[in-house]
Amino acid sequence: MSRMLFVNLPVADLPASMAFYAALGFENNPQFTDETAACMVWSEAIYVMLLTHEKWRTFTDRPIPPSHSSEVMLALSHESRDIVDAVNEAAARHGGSADINPRQDLGFMYSRSLADPDGHVWEMMWMDMSAMENS
Predict the structure, then answer these.
(1) Distance CA 1, CA 134 (A)
(2) How large is the greatest C-alpha to C-alpha distance in the chain, in angstroms?
(3) Is the pLDDT of residue 120 over 80?
(4) Which end of the chain, N or C, is surrounded by fewer C-beta atoms within 10 Å?
(5) CA–CA distance from 54 to each of 15, 38, 46, 134 (Å)?
(6) Per-residue pLDDT reduced to its tens digit, 25-65
(7) In the structure, what pLDDT confidence band is assigned to residue 133 with cuts at 50, 70 and 90?
């Protein structure tokens, strides 16, 4: 079996969260989706499991952090700066918050941070790997 990453996130409104992630380019896998959870696919190796608060509590007794806190920032790479911008703008149009941190432009790397409707923090980034190879 190949290595895969499953990011599990508690969400207050499962349909709204599914729509948000679909707007950012994730695809739903109905095989692992029901009224308590949704599997949103980023790539062949990266999956985001959106879990209702009730479903989340079947996995852990730890409290769900308030939406204005940060427990982790997850970064996803994109093929261009324009796509980073488009995804960040889509987040703002679909219930998330765009540019929650200052955008970073280092020339060879560009990133913008957003939060989903539940406050989970994502960094959308692009990196010119050829510029890295020459340094």
Answers:
(1) 35
(2) 50
(3) yes
(4) N
(5) 15, 13, 24, 50
(6) 999 999 999 999 999 999 999 999 999 999 999 999 999 98
(7) low
Angle at 97 between CA 48 and CA 34, to 5 degrees: 30
70-80 pLDDT, tens per residue?
888 999 999 99
Show the 3-state SS of 13-67.
CHHHHHHHHHHCCCEEEHHHCCCCEEEEECCCCEEEEEEEHHHHCCCCCCCCCCC
Compute the distance between CA of residue 25 and CA of residue 23 in angstroms, rounded to an integer.
5
Q: How far is CA 122 from CA 22, 59, 77, 91, in A?
A: 15, 23, 11, 10
The closest alpha carbon to 116, from 86, 82, 74, belongs to: 74
Spatial contact of 113 and 123, defined as CB atoms under 8 Å apart = yes
Q: Where residue 119 falls among pLDDT bands split at 50, 70, 90?
A: very high
